[in-house]
Amino acid sequence: MESQASGIDHPPLSSHSHSADVDLESVPISKKTGSDGAKAKQETDVENALDSPANVFSKGRVAIIIFIAGLAAFISPFTANIFLPALPDVASDLGVSIDKVNLSVFIYLIAQGISPMFLGGSDAMGRRGIYLTCFIIYSGANAGLANLPNGDFAGLLVLRFMQACGSASMVAIGIGVVSDITTPASRGSLMAIVQAGATLGPAVGPVIGGVLSGAAGWRSIFWFTFALGALVLLLTLIFLPETLATARANHHIPLPIRKAWVDICTERKQQQQQQQHQHHRPASLQEPSSAYEHGPRTIRSVAIRVLHACWSPFRALHVFKQPEVVLALFAVGLPFGCFYGTTVPLSDQFQSRYGLSTLQSGLIFIAPGVGVSLSSVVAGKMLDRSFRRVREEFDQDRTAKPQDGISPSPAGSAATSPTTVAAPTSLLKALSKEETTALFPFEHARLAYLPLWFLLFAAALLAYGWTLERNVYLAVPIILTFFVGLGLGGLFSIINCIQVDYVGGKGASITAINNLCRCLLGAVFSAIVQSMIAAIGVGWSQTVFAGITLLSGLLPLALWYFGPRWRRARWTK
Asked: Where's it mainly located (predicted)?
């Protein structure tokens, strides 16, 4: 639901003065009449609350939500990489070659790209229910892997596929959660926190995997991931509320799916106190019960709604109708493929060139992982600063030169002339979400610093490849992998943020599409990199990756010049 009087810009989260979350189910319905005497429109206070994410959750609750979303996003890449140091041990126990065990990595990557398309229905049915489903699948698969008997290679492939299906959607849902509870002005830094959790996984995973496998065997890895999944599942059940506005107000979704346990317990305690108070009041003054009676709700009806929302893999493909989204997908997908082409042979290269052990080569992954995590936070701050600057310019321009039939005064106020002094608040509040998406120059607000990150990433790829080719002192290529991760994390954060801006409340859907493109391109690059190194060497292979990165950096330039024009043209039709 959208309110015509409410735009997407609101006071930043840091300006909250309240401490309690808004109970949307108890907001009364009222009519609102425009000040210009036009025909009254049916609007509700619920709609106003739903369209104001900064007013729904308190500052402390937002911190809890972001923490859980970041921890959940950490699981998918962590699980993908924790298994890598144990591959030789797994091959020995299952009685297969190392090449066959590598097939489990390929299957995991494919499932990681495809499964969010099926389990990414959180934009329709809500975030919390899909979260719980993913955690249950993930924990069950880990329990099976931890008890896998020797020789059961087929079981390894099946359970790794299920493990990926359970974990892959958590990043997409986390981005959707951020888009639910933030405004564009504050979205960059908070989204960077969730992305930092996702990018920290590749740094920590191989280290923990090597330690566990060496100390207690490779099955201990999956007992660890089982415990991690169970912990996040418990935190989600107790503390994470439903953040999607339409799902919070949808009473066809069972109450335990829509609300956190702590909220349910608090509301029941309040209801008991109210009932005790009403027990001593005359019957004529007692209020009627407001139990959640909004029509019949059966297991069958709920199941049909969930299946319709979650098992529609083509639901999110409509974004390919928008050329700016397609360009953004490849602008981040190609560098991600180059990153995979760099990190997949990393252990083998350092072991063969410098004589490192499996655990020592696993420690090298810390450098690119820390770089990615650090750049996510830095890029988030840069995004917020750039957005505020462009928003001020946008307000001044539209105040001086009103156009497109949009008054410079906030919606619902008296009509003003073009020379009216600008309102103290951002004019984005006067625009509907559709108008803001069409008219506001998101490209100028998000992409101003993007060329720096592309240049950093390409230069780091090139330098890393040739220092490794020349067998330079060990510390040099390791330090360069840090800058490889730094460059990738920065451009990933920026492009992912503008993709969410393009699709509005469909943050989980666009992230699922983004994940599909990145994983498929990553699978292609990881499949060909060993052949490239064997044919032309690691130095020239990294030179090719640097060239691909520079070419993909031209795509954001097309977004900068043509993106606003494309969006405005669609809006005027």
From this structure: membrane
85 is written with which tokens? 């140091």
Tell me how far apart the alpha carbons of residues 216 and 202 are, in angstroms, rounded to a whole number. Answer: 21
C-alpha to C-alpha distance for 513 and 340, rounded to whole angstroms = 18
Q: Hey, what domains does the chain have and what are their CATH numbers?
A: 59-272 (1.20.1250.20), 322-573 (1.20.1250)
229-287 pLDDT, tens digit per residue, is 999 999 999 988 888 877 777 777 777 777 888 888 888 888 887 777 666 555 444 44
pLDDT tens figures, 388-409: 887 777 777 666 655 554 444 4
Which of 66-70, 248-252, 343-347, 567-571 is the most confident on average? 66-70
State the Cα–Cα distance between residues 167 and 209, nearest whole angstrom.
Answer: 17
The residue type found at 274 is Q
User: What CA–CA distance (Å, rounded) separates 399 from 406?
Assistant: 10
What are the Cα distances from residue 39, in Å, to 5, 14, 227? 15, 37, 58
The string of DSSP letters for 144-155 reads HHHTPPTT-HHH
Closest CA to 464 of 356, 367, 322, 330: 367
